[in-house]
Amino acid sequence: MQFKTATSPHLAQQNSVQSVMYKVLLAMLPGTIAMIVFFGWGVLVNIILASVVALSCEALMLLLRKRPLKPYLLDGSALLTATLLALALPQLAPWWLTLIGTAFAIIVAKHLYGGLGFNPFNPAMVGYIVVIISFPREMTQWVPPLLDDYTLLTFSETLRVIFHGELPLTYGWDAITMATPLDTVKTQLGLELSINEIENHKEYGSMFGAIGGFGWEWANGLFLMTGLYLCIKRIIDWRIPAGIIAAILVLSNLFALYDYASFTPPTFHLFSGGFMLGAFFIATDPVTAATTTKGRWLYGAGIGIFIYIIRTWGSYPDGIAFAVILMNMAAPLLDYYTMPRAFGHRWNEFPHHHLGDKDEE
Amino acid sequence: MSLNSRHLWHFHGGLKLPSNKAVSTIKPITRALLPKRLVIPVQQHIGEAGKLLVKVGDSVLKGQVLAQASSYVSASIHAPSSGKVVEIEELPVPHPSGLSALSVVIETDGEDKWIELSPLHHPNTKSPTELRQLIRQAGIVGLGGAAFPTAVKVNTGPHAEIDTLIINGAECEPSISCDDMLMRHYASEVISGCGLIQYIVSAKHCLIAIEDNKPEAIAALRAVITEKALHTIEVVVVPTIYPTGGEKQLIKVLSNKEVPSDGFPSDIGVLVQNVGTAVAIHKAICLGEPLISRIVTITGEGVQQAHNMEVLIGTPMSELIEQSGGYHDDAAKLIMGGPMMGFTLQTDHLPVTKACNCLLVSNAAEQTADAMPCIRCGACATVCPAQLLPQQLYWHASSKNFDLVQEYHLFDCIECGCCNHVCPSQIPLVQYYRFAKTEIWNQERDRIKSDHARIRHEFRQQRLDREKKERDEKLRKKKELLAKKKIAEAETKKTADETTEIDPKKAAIEAAMQRVKDKKSAQQTATTNLTSATESSNEKSTQEQ
Question: Which residue among A9, A16, A339 places its CB closest to the CB of B389?
């Protein structure tokens, strides 16, 4: 009898890029629902809008690059980029802001570098940085979380705000948007208020919850829990979020001990803004992160340090995007200097001619 | 399950795989029927092929030497049964590329008549060197799959001191159960073999490592050890993690020592032998029987009946399948070895060799999904038991950067397939590494060849230079001589003129020289004529064209 030949191993491979991406997307669901509950329909509209744009841009680029459509459109990577970016944008951001950010992320940051697996920078964060630098005013259209004396916009009102910029008759922009807790802390600290005074302020105090920003702490908590689950299931590498959290804890504790009135406490850092989303879902993007064990610790720690620096002394309220992109740049170098010792070798000997000088030969 | 008190270590990475062994261990080992034709490839081992001692038409007895080990790293082969040599030809052998190799074909006579055997009843009265010689004569090779001549492996040299002998009964590859069944059914032979190897290499301890998914084998061996009250042989239960059965990985688990990348286990005082090899050594020394059979696992979803068979070397695989009830309709691939490291065969009309531990018939509905790009998830590095960076190896191998790929320790890769198995992008990583290794070997061969050529060329150039120099020297000397002669002649002439007295001898010489000169000039004219003739004919032919 004649048989087909193939090379070993012959066991069917269990894993796929698609399943990794969809598991990560699924894990983002609880946190996302919390965001919708606290901040309204805008979150959902942003996600849907970004997803449509991302898939269209992906299809367009695949056609232009003459790549097969089906495997890449279905791999979930474009959807993941879209969702991460949408969650990072203000809930009432105008439609064209989402469109520009997402299109830039997919077309430039992903496909111009060679598509899935070849982009050196996290596409979602590149998209975010492009819009926050280009359109700083629109990037402040955050809504306050659902509070006792405030009702969220209805779905149709949200659509009208996002697509037509039309506000409901009874509201003004000031009434429906406000700074995030992170932003408020930064501004008020600049006005010589202490942390305690800010948190108990009659105007801003209500935006602070038990441990972080009100609403934000719920989203962060849920992202933390599902993120931990992904770590246990080995779908994402635990060392990166561990490095980020460790760095934030060390720095925030040190400075809060030094002066608790002017430096925010560790819990506030961990449960405000997009921290847990960033630590577990953005920074862990394997394509742009370091790949060695030690490299991932350092990569995470670097992101944590940059987040703290930017939040505390930088000019932007949250620093996740910048921190991630900065460490993306360092990833190849981290990988190179943290090569593991191979079995049976005494120590890791670095390859002599690494960083691309092979052309000389 | 009884565990051991011994402390164990871990190697990096590895996989927990479904073992799929139970199905083939339900039935006891059956003896395969004596085939009509046995095809015995002359080379079934690593090293040089043996020297043929038989010719077509010879009658052979079971156990008779067919080919004698030709050099140090070589192994003899023996007739697995009695009969007649009917053919010595290049025939297909089990090989990933479907190669053919010189094979001896024996038509069996059904009598299965042994040559005269000389069993050793008291091996301890012989020296280790004599026992090694017996192992060599019996044609024993590593039965774990590598088929390296055992006589060479147990000769650790005068300087290496073997502290621990490890008998590898881990059998970490899924589906294979031949070692498991061997340990269950030939426990006392295994222990006897262990003792013999221990004696030959003078090892202080002997550890028999078995994965914890083989409780029956563990119990069987422990029973023999207790019964014989052996104190230096110990069964060590190791966790079932693929590839614990890899030599270097097993040593790490048992001793926390790492075999140096460029060294041998004996460098760290360890020798590893497979359980099957231990039994073969027992048979060779205590019974005088050469290696002419082995246990083969027939298994997989594509075959009717999964079981283990004791098979004569040279038996056609198709007959084993037939005796296992034949194929299922959906049989898709025939694999020699396990699902992780085995290779596929194009046909079952191939002989069982000494290295053939398992025939796995898979019905795997092939996942023909194309590989996606690497997403750098690093799952491969997490599972790599050689602590390599499979992803970097992949990048550099696919860009054919063979220098860099070696600096990332490509040659420490044992091709276990772990990285390949976990890759979410389903990249055939091991294939890339094999490709890079082959390319590097080819380049190395070419380099050696071109080096040879270069050296030859340089030698030739030197020789030509030397010859030219010598010629020039000769010519110079001749000219000098001639010049001297002329001067001398002139002088003599002068004196002759002066004396007007002609020496008759000199006159004779002069006359002779004159004759030579004449002749030379005549020849020259002839050559010139000839050349001009050729030239003119050339001209003619050019004109004709």
Answer: A339
**Cβ contacts of residue B99 below 8 Å, gap of 6+?**
B92, B93
Can you name the CATH fold of B22-35+126-358? Rossmann fold (3.40.50)
Parse chain A into domains and list their residue ranges: 16-177, 183-339
With CA atoms as reference, the chain B residue closest to A349 would be: B407
pLDDT in tens, A140-163: 777 777 655 566 788 888 888 888
Please give the torsion angle defined by the CA atoms of residues B352, B358, B363 and B364, in that order, rounded to the nearest 10 degrees. -120
- Residue B308 CB partners (closer than 8 Å, separation 6+): B24, B25, B27, B29, B30, B177, B178, B181, B295, B296, B297, B298
Candidate from B261, B381, B412 with C-beta closest to A291:
B381
Nearest to B290 by CA among B300, B298, B280, B299: B280
Domain boundaries of chain B, sorted by first residue? 22-35+126-358, 374-498
Q: CA A290 to CA A298: how far, in whole Å?
A: 9
Best mutation target, B173, B409, B420, B430, to test chain A (most A CBs within 10 A):
B409
Give the Cα separation of B82 and B64 in Å (integer): 8
Cα separation, A129 vs A310, in Å, equals: 14
Q: Tell me: the pLDDT tens digits for A201-234?
A: 766 666 777 676 778 889 999 999 999 999 999 9
Residues B60, B65, B68, CA angle at the centre, nearest 5°? 145
Task: Tell me which chain A residues have a C-beta less than 8 angstroms from the C-beta of B331.
Answer: 1, 3
Reduced to 3 states, what is the DSSP secondary structure of residue B164? strand
- B182, B279 contact by CB (below 8 A): yes
Dist CA B315 CA B311 (whole Å): 7
CB B53 within 8 A of CB B65: yes
- As a whole number, mean pLDDT of residues A62-91 equals 94
ipTM: 0.86
Tell me the shortest Cα–Cα distance from A130 to chain B, in angstroms. Answer: 24
Contact B315, B391 (CB under 8 A): no
CB atoms A342 and B387 under 8 Å: yes
Can you give the pTM of this predicted structure?
A: 0.83
Cis amide bond preceding A68, omega within 30: no
**Which overall architecture, per CATH, does domain B374-498 show?**
Orthogonal Bundle (1.10)
Residues of B in contact with A354 (CB under 8 A): 404
